[in-house]
């Protein structure tokens, strides 16, 4: 039975059983050698990266780790089939198989390399100030281009007309772009955020009625943690349409505040007020005094305006300093007998004149 099977096999392909056996052994040996070389390379580059703390060796070892065993198996199978005299048709198929296999494995290596690069860029943002949007967009673009080029190369190897195929893809791409124009608008907005960097993760921004800290900048949306605790998700296009106030990038904070004193304050003591304010502001620390002026005559008070700078963008520090300044002003004014104004109004009521008295009757008869 076995002899008949081998004879029919030989009659079908014109190859002896010994040649088939030799091809099978060659395939197994090739698979073992390729697997062994891969394990050896992974071990060597892994040890080298740990010993030298080399990022390049670590990335290379990680890229080699993307080598798939089914790719090695198919490569060993193609090597074994090449040992047989199968004719021109099979030789052409083997060549096409090598092209597909190499393109697939190359795409897997590129994909792993881009992933390793983007991961390291995002993990080392403290030392390498890369914008996560740019890193993500670059990684996504490189992956798409790599797979597209390798796919076109495989199709060209099989005899497909690439020019007509690319033209049809272009027409289809225009239709898809029109259908998803809102999504593409947000994608380009995220790219603009990455290039222009109006804000980054961790910045405190204010726009419209929204105030919060940037938590994540995505390809379509930006997530903001508001002061009240909820998460606000805003489209990148809509976000860039607003005027943004980025308080994280303040080097110092300019403060303007006013207070009022009573109209009963004599001019000599009014003249002392700016100097008292300057002394109080400078004594609070972490401030730079700018000016203090008797600004105007109010409806029921004498109004002063003060401007100073807090040498830090921290809002809590500003509030602590302002509280200290207010308390110190109260103590200084109390010592100088200068009173803060209390809102008051004076109303005048007009009284009607009394009617004239009638003349005395007795005096009128005389």
Automatic annotation (TrEMBL):
Membrane topology: Multi-pass membrane protein
Pfam families xref list: MS_channel_1st, MS_channel_2nd, MS_channel_3rd
Residues covered by the Mechanosensitive ion channel transmembrane helices 2/3 domain: 141-181
Record domain Mechanosensitive ion channel MscS: where: 182-249
Predominant subcellular localization, coarse grouping: membrane
Top-rank taxon: Bacteria
Location(s), subcellular: Cell membrane
Segments crossing the lipid bilayer: 20-42, 63-81, 93-111, 132-156, 162-180
Record key words, sorted: Cell membrane, Membrane, Transmembrane, Transmembrane helix
Domain Mechanosensitive ion channel MscS C-terminal positions: 255-340
InterPro entries: LSM_dom_sf, MS_channel_1st, MS_channel_C, MscS_beta-dom_sf, MscS_channel_2nd, MscS_channel_C_sf, MscS_channel_TM-2
PANTHER family assigned: INNER MEMBRANE PROTEIN (PTHR30566:SF25), YNAI-RELATED MECHANOSENSITIVE ION CHANNEL (PTHR30566)
Family: Belongs to the MscS (TC 1.A.23) family.
Protein's UniProt name: Mechanosensitive ion channel protein MscS
